[in-house]
Design brief:
Length: 389
C-alpha cells in the first residue's frame, strides 16, 4: 500500500511539473472573458471532482469572476481586484465581492497558479508565479477602472500588499482579510529545508469542491518565503498606501501577533489605515485606528473566528451558518469524529483551542463572520474616504 501510494504521488508530481503556471495567469492583453473561457477548459480537464455528476458546477465555483455595480451607481469607476489564499479558490471571496459590488464598486476575483484543480498542481508553483498573476491581472484591471484597490485573503493578502508597496502610484489602497505575514507555527522555517526532499506531510483527498484538503510542503515553503519577504518590505518602507485590515486574534493559520506588529510598524503610519481585530479575549482597544470586536458568543455557540471566517457571510449557502458544507478538517484521519463533527445538530464553532475543545469534543471550524455586514460597511467606508487622496 505504501509503495502504491509513493508511486502514485511520484506520477502525479511528474505530471504536474509539466504544467506551466501560465495556464492560470491572465496574459498581457488578454480580455477577461477570453481568459476565463480558456481557464474553464483547462480546469475542466484537470480538476479533481468531488462529485463527477456535478462537474460543471464544481468548475464554475473555482473560476475567476466579476461583479458589476448597479446601473444606478454614479461617479468614477472604482475597482477592487481580489486574490484568495493558499489551497483556496476564488469561491472563498464570493461574499465579499458581492457585498462590495452592492456598494457600487466593480469587483473582480482572480485565481492564483496551482489552484482550482488538484493539490498536486501546487508542488511546482513558485511565489514568483503568484506574483506574476497579481501583476498581470492588476495591469489589465487598471485599464478598465478609474481607481484601483487591491484586496487579498491570507496569501493573497501578502501578495497584494507587496504589489501595492512596489507600485503605490497604481494602487489607491489595500484591503486585507487575515493576511499572511507569518505562518502560525514555531517550525514554519523547516518547510524550505524539507521541500526538496518531501512533497507531503499529510495528503487527504478533499470533499470540498472549492478548497484543497492538504497543501504540499513546497507550496508551504513558498508561502513562508513570501511572507518573510513581504514583511521586510513593508516594515522597511512604511505607510506607502492606506490599508484596511481585518483579522482574528485566534487565527490558527497565520500568526496574528506578527500581523499586529506589521500594522503598528508600517500600516499605522498612514492616517487612513485602520484595523478590525476580532477577539474572544480582548474587550477594548486604546487606539483610534483599531476596533476590537468580541467573538466569545455563547448564544451563537461561537468561540473565536477561524482563519477563513473573517470574510464569510452567515447566509452563504455553502460555508454559511446553515450551509451545505461544514469544515471539520481537524479530524481528517479520524472518520468517526469527522462524521460526528459534520452532522452534530448543536455543535460549537470557532478556531481550534483548548477552550473550544472544552465546549465540544467535535467542534467545527467557523467559516462565517457573524459581523459580516458590519465589516463590509467598514470596508466600503474605507474605500470611499481614501479614493481621492
Amino acid at each position: 500500500m505504501r509503495l502504491h501510494r509513493f508511486v502514485m504521488t511520484f506520477l502525479l508530481a511528474s505530471i504536474s511539473c509539466c504544467i506551466s503556471a501560465n495556464e492560470w495567469v491572465q496574459l498581457k492583453g488578454e480580455p477577461f472573458v477570453e481568459y476565463r473561457e480558456r481557464l474553464s477548459h483547462f480546469i475542466t480537464d484537470r480538476k479533481a471532482l468531488v462529485d463527477a455528476n456535478k462537474g460543471a458546477m464544481e468548475v464554475e465555483a473555482v473560476l475567476p469572476y466579476e461583479r458589476f455595480p448597479n446601473k444606478s451607481c454614479s461617479g468614477p469607476k472604482i475597482g477592487v481586484l481580489m486574490f484568495h489564499g493558499l489551497s483556496d479558490s476564488p469561491f472563498a471571496l464570493r461574499d465579499s465581492a458581492q457585498a462590495l459590488s452592492d456598494s457600487c464598486f466593480y469587483t473582480r476575483v482572480m485565481i492564483l497558479p496551482g489552484h482550482g484543480t488538484k493539490a498536486e498542481d501546487l508542488i511546482n508553483v513558485t511565489r514568483d508565479d503568484w506574483r506574476q498573476a497579481v501583476a498581470n491581472a492588476t495591469e489589465q484591471f487598471s485599464q478598465q477602472v478609474d481607481v484601483v484597490y487591491l484586496a487579498g485573503f491570507s496569501t493573497g493578502g501578502a501578495l497584494v500588499t507587496e504589489y501595492a508597496w512596489n507600485n503605490p502610484s497604481v494602487v489607491e489602497g489595500v484591503v486585507l482579510f487575515s493576511p499572511l505575514f507569518k505562518i502560525n507555527s514555531s517550525i514554519d522555517w523547516l518547510a524550505p529545508l524539507l521541500s526538496p526532499f518531501i512533497n507531503w506531510l499529510d495528503h487527504h483527498e478533499s470533499d470540498d469542491y472549492a478548497k484543497y484538503a492538504s497543501i504540499p510542503v513546497p507550496a508551504i515553503a513558498e508561502a513562508y518565503k513570501l511572507a518573510k519577504e513581504v514583511r521586510q518590505i513593508v516594515v522597511d518602507t512604511p505607510a506607502k498606501v492606506p490599508v484596511f485590515l481585518a483579522l482574528s486574534e485566534e487565527d490558527a493559520t497565520v500568526d496574528s501577533s506578527v500581523t499586529l506588529e506589521v500594522f503598528n510598524a508600517s500600516f499605522k503610519g498612514h492616517p487612513y489605515s485602520e484595523m478590525v481585530l476580532y477577539s474572544a479575549i480582548q474587550q477594548a482597544a486604546f487606539d483610534e485606528q483599531v476596533e476590537i470586536i468580541n467573538t466569545d458568543l455563547p448564544e451563537q455557540r461561537i468561540f473565536g473566528l477561524a482563519h477563513m471566517a473573517v470574510h464569510g457571510a452567515p447566509d452563504n449557502p455553502y460555508y454559511g451558518e446553515q450551509g451545505k458544507y461544514r469544515i471539520c478538517s481537524w479530524y481528517l484521519g479520524e472518520e468517526s469524529r469527522y462524521q460526528e463533527c459534520r452532522e452534530a445538530e448543536h455543535n460549537w464553532f470557532g478556531e481550534r483551542s483548548d477552550k473550544l475543545s472544552s465546549l465540544s469534543d467535535v467542534a467545527a471550524r467557523l467559516s462565517w463572520n457573524p459581523y459580516f455586514d458590519d465589516l463590509m460597511e467598514r470596508v466600503s467606508a474605507f474605500v470611499s474616504k481614501t479614493r481621492e487622496l
